[in-house]
Amino acid sequence: MKIGLAADHGGFELKNFLREELEKSGYQVQDFGAYSLDNQDDYPDFVIPMAESVSHGELEKGIAVCGSGVGACVAVNKVKGIRGALIQDHFSAHQGVEDDDINLICLGGRTMGSMVAKEIVFTFLEAHFTGEERHVRRLNKVKLLENKDL
């Protein structure tokens, strides 16, 4: 599975840890930066290109990390086709995919330990959308909102 990973300074260390763990497990990881620790960098510069790659189908899923995960989550959800969620627990990591077909998760590099983040990421990546009628119906309503301005 090809996945994207992006972070600003607040998520830099966690991103690097996750990249190593994912690559050890056989995932193909495209790192969108940051590539060095710079306390003045801005999360949109990294997470938006990654979200666009997920949206265009170049990547299957994405992981965005900033200090709290909140800013990254706001930013990625501005990209059409992205269903991103701030995930802080195991249940939401799989339920968000199974019911809501999320394709990108956001994590807080300053709010979560590396081993919890690893568990959440692997749970997210291993989950599958159920395709149940009620979930498809709800997603179609969300997609209508995305296409409202067309």
Account of the protein in words:
This protein is of the alpha/beta class and 150 residues long. The chain has a single domain, classed as 3-Layer(aba) Sandwich (Ribose 5-phosphate Isomerase B, Chain: A), CATH 3.40.1400.10. Helices cover 47% and strands 16% of the residues. Strands 2-1-3-5-4 form a five-stranded parallel beta sheet, sandwiched between helices. Strand 1 (2-7), helix 1 (12-24) and strand 2 (28-31) form a beta-alpha-beta unit. The protein is globular.
Class computed from helices, strands and strand pairing: alpha/beta
Quick check: average pLDDT? 96
Outline, from the CA principal axes? Answer: globular
Name the CATH homologous superfamily: Sugar-phosphate isomerase, RpiB/LacA/LacB
Q: Measure the end-to-end span.
A: 32 Å
Percent range of helical residues: 40-55%
**Topology, number of strands:** 5
Q: Report the order of strands and helices.
A: EHEHEHEHEHH
% residues in beta strands: 15-25%
Could you name the ranges where pLDDT drops below 50 across 5 or more consecutive residues?
none
Radius of gyration: 15 Å
* CATH class category: Alpha Beta
CATH topology name, in short, is Ribose 5-phosphate Isomerase B, Chain: A
Tally of DSSP helical segments = 6
Q: In the CATH hierarchy, what is the architecture at level 2? A: 3-Layer(aba) Sandwich
Kindly report the spatial arrangement of strands forming the biggest sheet: 2-1-3-5-4
Number of domains: 1
Give a short account of the largest sheet: 5 strands, parallel
